[in-house]
């Protein structure tokens, strides 16, 4: 079963998680690069402003049809000011071709589940109910989250099998 992961990472945390997901599933990993300032006070200020206003250049991203033909895809980004990071949201504005099996992955500093960010990301991706994975930066950096990752991947790669749908 072929999978595609589309990942935006600001500080490297989400990228580390995406690398792990790709390795565990043999999925093809595509990164969104946003340019601009990186981690640090200036980067957080600039990207915080852009996240709130939606302003910013289009990211250097995979083409909208990158997931065409894949059995499943996962969209991954950090949470910025309660929303999925702007570069992934901008990529979704291009209305990419995504498979029916779609998973949503968010990382954040907060332990509480970012429900509104998942809801918005799902709406932008055109799905209402999708497997979700949220891990904190501390969990990712420590190499943890095994149970959560296993449950997410099981839900994503096995979706539809119980109902007899074809993969």
How would you describe this structure to a colleague?
With about 170 residues, the protein is an alpha/beta fold. The protein has a single domain, classed as Flavodoxin domain (Rossmann fold, 3-Layer(aba) Sandwich), CATH 3.40.50.360. The protein has six helices and six strands. The protein has helices at about 15-25, 40-55, 85-90, 115-125, 135-140, 145-160; strands spanning about 5-10, 30, 70-80, 85, 100-110, 130-135. Strand 1, helix 1 (about 15-25) and strand 2 (about 30) form a beta-alpha-beta unit. The N and C termini lie close together (about 10 Å).
Entry summary:
This protein has helices at 13-25, 41-53, 86-92, 115-125, 137-141, 146-158; strands spanning 3-8, 28-32, 72-80, 83-84, 101-108, 132-136. The chain is of the alpha/beta class.
Q: What is the mean pLDDT?
A: 86
- How many strands? 6
> What's the architecture, going by CATH?
3-Layer(aba) Sandwich
Task: Quickly count the domains.
Answer: 1
Order of helices and strands: EHEHEEHEHEHH
| CATH H-level homologous superfamily name | Flavodoxin domain
How helix-rich are the residues, as a percent range?
25-40%
Given as residue ranges, the uncertain stretches (5+ residues, pLDDT < 50) are 162-167
